[in-house]
Amino acid sequence: MAEQIQTLVEQPLDWACLFSEAAENSITPLLERQLCAVVPEAIPPEYLAQLKSASRANTLRCLYMVAELNRILELFESHGIPPIPYKGPVLAQQAYGDITLREFEDLDIILRQRQLPQAHEILLGMGYQAKFPWILSPGAAASLVPGEYNYRSLERRVMVELHTEMTLRHFPVVPCLDHFSQRLIPVRLGGRDVRTFCAEDALPILCIHGSKDFWERISWVADISELIQAHPQLDWDAVRQCAESLKAQRMLYLGLTLAGRLLGAPVPREIFESAHADAVVSAVAGEVEARLLSREFTPLDAAGRFHFRRRLVPGALAGWRYAIRLTVVPTEEDWMMVRLPAPLAPLYIALRPLRLLRKYGWTSRRAARPST
Q1: pTM metric for this prediction
Q2: Neighbour tally for 285: CB within 10 Å
Q3: What does DSSP say about strands 129-130 and 84-86: parallel, antiparallel, or unpaired?
Q4: Contact (CB, 8 A) for 19 and 51
């Protein structure tokens, strides 16, 4: 990334716009590290002070979030729940080598669906409040599974998201957590070892996450680049095998292509050539790159979102099935639109496409980047 920074400052810069874009893409700490390491003399004093202030605030927030994550993990483990923390501070340490170099807004923890009721009670006992407490109530339909089980603590100003094999609906196939658990590795976090996905598994999972949100933040591309650089001995055969087991080969190639093109990530030549040989990957990567580098952010409309997802799973039938599933499977926003009794829950399948059309339309009218 240093070469990109050097090239950037050799041009006339709108520093206010640069910092605004960095904030929107959640890369302010990373930008500060690169600018101060490569061209500190090029930064106007007032913007340097602003950059350092934002980074200090992020550092304090990161340290507090790490302490809270360790507290939650210890409670889960003491109750026999084996958690898998990922993204957030765990990824910051695993990929960036420094928890303060990656901005994160919440704490993500994966566990088994059968362990969710117990985890729910633990978080409530810690003072967290469930965003949708009725989901786990006896009268709720079993089919109502959210995108994540969301908990907030107003006192701590912390949000926790619990994920299970059932909530990870953007995976082309249901992930086998028992299989992943056999390859977990320790990452040192706040003086404590926490077990998370090995780099070979984390890379495809991160590419699925970026694809889920249409790669609308540069920070998600940076995650891929930094993870590769932090693991020069990466077993690329294992990476591809993991992606294949999840039917996410094209999502992996898309993430690697973006990381290579935009940030110069050291993707092996044979991997990059395989990705480039997929015409769909090349086309979608070009579309994402154009949106990311555009001065006026233009998100995808409803039709564009469907088309994007349909192309990310190889095979015409498989791609259509994947896109249709994500279009009709209800989420929290659908339940908030109207509350249906458990016997009528299947009607949410009909309501969801209508809500998506209402929210995104057939033309791109929104101008805000995603919040998560």
Answers
A1: 0.85
A2: 23
A3: unpaired
A4: yes
